Amino acid sequence: MYLPSAVTKQSEIEVAIQEVVRTVGPDVVRIRYEIGEDWSGQWAIFFRVVLSDDAAKRRLREVAGKVVWGLARRLDFPAMGVFPYHNFRSVSEQAALQEPAWA
Amino acid sequence: MLADDLREDARHLAVKGDAEKRQSCLRRAISTAYYAVFHLLVEDFVEHWEFEDQRARLARMFNHQKMRDALFKPKEKSNPTSAETALMDVIRAFGQLQEDRHRADYDLGWKIVGTDVTDAITLAEETFVKWRSIRRADIARHHLHSMFGARVEKVP
Hints:
The complex is a heterodimer.
Chain A: H1 10-24, E1 28-37, E2 43-51, H2 53-58, H3 60-74, H4 77-80, E3 83-90, H5 91-97
Parallel strand pairs in A: 2-3
Antiparallel strand pairs in A: 1-2
Helix pairs in contact in A: 1-3
Chain B: H1 2-20, H2 23-46, H3 55-60, H4 64-69, H5 82-106, H6 114-134, H7 138-148
Helix pairs in contact in B: 1-2, 1-6, 2-5, 2-6, 5-6
């Protein structure tokens, strides 16, 4: 079974995530990720980004752009064999839903 | 243009979904945001086809997956031009919106929150602006051909 090289680069991914969280600042609370297949069966990396309530409400596009580009600059997704997807939610939304994948 | 109407429809659906707490409207808002961008690109391609009566047929030849998988690499990866950066944003946004659209339409396990909807709509709106700022550039014209399925050629 084919597995993308991203599977073997999880420590590199973690380092990149921590750098992005540190660089963007308090607007980004945490980033979780998962490697899997998307709707078309192509390998992908799904980032789940929890934002501060203020950032999600007032600066979503600005902060989202920083996260997306910050990760893209640090991680070579094509070389890793994955397409990156990013989804965002606020601290309050996650508190209401309590989804373990976002915790 | 249909694309502009769809972009507005996505906003209307989001407002209705939020006001009435209707998941169906929120899902349709996300789905419509994708189709707005899809038609933005397709309409841009077919409007240059000389034979007006054939444009609808031509538009139907676009394949969602092929459009997403179209390759683009900036000349200097570490130092892309502003047009290349905008095109990479459009490509990434198209892929993101397509995946979200699929989940919105089929994944009933997806617990959609307000930020998901706002993200999809504002990403689509931003993509309109970026695409229209580069649509006449060579790299954008070539990429549209790649999305249509044409083999990648070197940009002159």
